Amino acid sequence: MAVGTPLVTSNLSSMPEVASPATLLVSPADYRAMAEAMVTLDPDSALREQRIAAGHTQLERCSWSNCAKATLAVYRELV
Asked: What is the pTM of this model?
């Protein structure tokens, strides 16, 4: 996402939480779904651009700086 590439990733584990809505989510066991997602992105420049923009937004939201600020806020609340 950081280099402006739309992603196809797993719909399992934490990937939907971490990467969505910037990605196309597929079952890692479904190779046809993976191929279809990649083929969908290739000719659809509007979809690619939307996912790239969403990726940059997602990166800002999940940055180490924001993570550190949120962690510090929890620590302050606990003390």
From this structure: 0.71
